Amino acid sequence: MKVSEIIERLELKVISGERGLDREISGGYVSDLLSDVMGNAREGQIWITLQVHQNVMAIASLKDLAAVILVKDLKANENTIQHSNDEQIPILSSSLSTFELAGRLYALLNAR
Q1: pLDDT tens for residues 36-60?
Q2: Which pick of 2, 33, 44, 49 has the fewest CB atoms within 10 Å?
């Protein structure tokens, strides 16, 4: 499934990184602890977090993640948005809580 399909199915907002919307998603990862994501997230996963600073994009780029979803309508910092655009890794936004969004993403990715 592509990032663009997830956006439509989960009614997400695109904040940045539009050039990466055709990336394939291999799974999902949920954590707000950057060291946890760095050690355990896998290439192609979509990361759900409430972190908004530019280190999020450093980790997303290092792990070659498909996209980052910010929960609870959180807004990314300007330098985070710039890094997202540079790396072509989309930052998306949802009004849902982490729990609800993770459940919906899990169901969507496992329905295939």
Answers
A1: 999 999 999 999 999 999 999 999 9
A2: 33
Structure token digits, residue 66: 């498909």
C-alpha–C-alpha distance, residues 7 and 50, integer Å: 18
Structure tokens at 98: 């982490």
User: What are the residues facing 93 on neighbouring strands?
Assistant: 13, 70
Q: How many CA atoms lie within 13 A of 2 on its CB side?
A: 9
Residue 11, both tokens: 């009614």
The total domain count for the chain is 1
**Owner of token pair 């609800």:** 100
Q: Give the mean pLDDT of 13-31.
A: 97
- Tell me which residue range forms the domain holding 54: 3-110
Question: What's the token pair of residue 27?
Answer: 């799974």
Q: Which CATH number is 85's domain given? A: 3.40.1390.20
pTM confidence score: 0.96
